[in-house]
């Protein structure tokens, strides 16, 4: 049985990230996926780039698929390193720069993932981390549901 993030929780996480995006005055697209990388919720703030819709979703997908933040993929994906070419796999859905984070339950299992796009990589990461911080403050069995 796979545990996955609920829609209500996804909305709460997106709200937290949107507040951070407003604080830094940068419109973003914010996506939350389930444990399998399938979209649960996504929000495009007014003025956010159209390209960020798919980028944010793919950042979340990458984090869910590989159980790691996307910024940790940059160096291993450089020419000559073990994951070189990763970004061209999985129908181009793999993202190797910051803004994607897995969401873990108390046992260390991925229950969802977060992806943000719309600014410089550092801004994407800062906004995504606000959502992850919100997850850390509320996580627990009340915020995940079982799925087959």
What are its keywords?
single chain, alpha+beta, Beta-Lactamase
Structure in words:
This protein has 148 residues and is α+β, with helices and mostly antiparallel strands. The protein has one domain: Haem-degrading domain (Beta-Lactamase, 2-Layer Sandwich), CATH 3.30.450. The chain has three helices and six strands, in the order E-H-E-E-H-E-E-H-E. Helices cover 34% and strands 22% of the residues. Helix 1 crosses helix 3 (121-138). It holds the Pfam family HbpS-like.
Summarize the structure.
The protein is α+β, with helices and mostly antiparallel strands.
Q: Using DSSP, what is the number of strands?
A: 6
Beta-strand content: 15-25%
| Count of domains | 1
SSE order, as H and E?
A: EHEEHEEHE
The CATH class name reads Alpha Beta
Strand pairing plus helix content: what structural class? Answer: alpha+beta
Structural shape: globular
Largest sheet: 4 strands, antiparallel
Low-confidence stretches: none
Helical fraction equals 25-40%
Please tell me the CATH architecture by its name. Answer: 2-Layer Sandwich
User: What is the distance, rounded to the nearest whole angstrom, between the alpha carbons of the first and last residues?
Assistant: 6 Å
DSSP helix count? 3
The radius of gyration is 14 Å
CATH fourth-tier homologous superfamily: Haem-degrading domain
Q: CATH topology, what is it called? A: Beta-Lactamase
Q: Which strand order do you get reading across the main beta sheet?
A: 3-2-5-4
- Average pLDDT, to the nearest integer? 93
